[in-house]
Amino acid sequence: MAERITEGAVPKHEQLRRILLELATGHMQPGAAIPSERQLIAEYGVSRITVREALGQLVNEGYLTRVRGKGTFVAHRPVQSTLHLASFTEEMRALGHVPTTVVLVREEAVPPTDTVAALHVDEGATAFHVKRLRLADGVPVSIDDAWFVRDLMPGLLDHDLSRSIYSLVADRYDTPIDRAQQTVAADPASDDVATLLGTRTGSPVLVFDRVSFSGDRAVEHTRSWYRSDRYRVQMEVRASEPRAVGRT
Predict the structure, then answer these.
(1) Which residue has better confidence, 92 or 204?
(2) Hey, is 203 helix, strand or coil?
(3) Orientation of helix 48-60 relative to helix 37-44, angle to 10°
(4) Residue 220, pLDDT score
(5) What's the whole-model pTM score?
């Protein structure tokens, strides 16, 4: 039986908003359809204006999403990560998500020019190329296109690459990745990236370009594409030195 919405100090649209928020976050999966405006009007005995106000607030807050001609759906809540060095598998588990990986490419090949420069390998020499689709709770979050120095990790491609490669290279090859240099940019998704991430061509994606080191040796060069609506980066910034607050 529907929860009652009554006249009182709390506006009806706010009462309905709370009901729908609990429904969307506690009882429905991302992508599930919210009842239609007509159903909500009949079930809760409120006006169309009240329904639209409640739905509109939840859309603006990111809990729901509208699809023209189809209806209103529970939105995919973005994974929020602090900016730190960790494998995708470790990071997702720490955030309470279930990580899975689909290995798209595993090969020994000659890397592109920017990777040759980043890893300081000889031109024409081969490296290990691993491209993977990463998912959290079964939902595509990123594509990782990585190159690894071959001489430091013989037989790398023979292992289970759906698990954490960072843990593998640390445990198996005694090559722990302990720091990285990384840049982040926003780009429109290309056709192939959009297809793998389940979004539209041209939709905004975050592009991470990372060179990872073990000690002083560059061992990995990775380019990653993240859906900007499913992944956010949180960071804390501080002044390099304490500074007195005053007027100028």
Answers:
(1) 204
(2) coil
(3) 120
(4) 96
(5) 0.64
**Which of these, 106, 117, 114, 143, lies nearest to 227 by C-alpha position?**
143
What is the CB neighbour count within 10 angstroms for residue 242?
6
Residue found under tokens 């919210």 = 34
16-32 pLDDT per residue, tens: 998 998 888 778 887 88
State the pLDDT at residue 241: 54
Measured torsion, CA atoms of residues 25, 197, 170, 107, in degrees rounded to the nearest 10:
160
DSSP for 62-129, please give it.
TSEEEETTTEEEEPPPPEEEES----HHHHHHHTT--EEEEEEEEEEEPPPHHHHHHHTPPTT--EEE
Measured on CA atoms in the order 203, 206, 208, 209, is the torsion positive or negative?
positive
Q: Which helix (H) or strand (E) holds 165?
A: helix 165-173
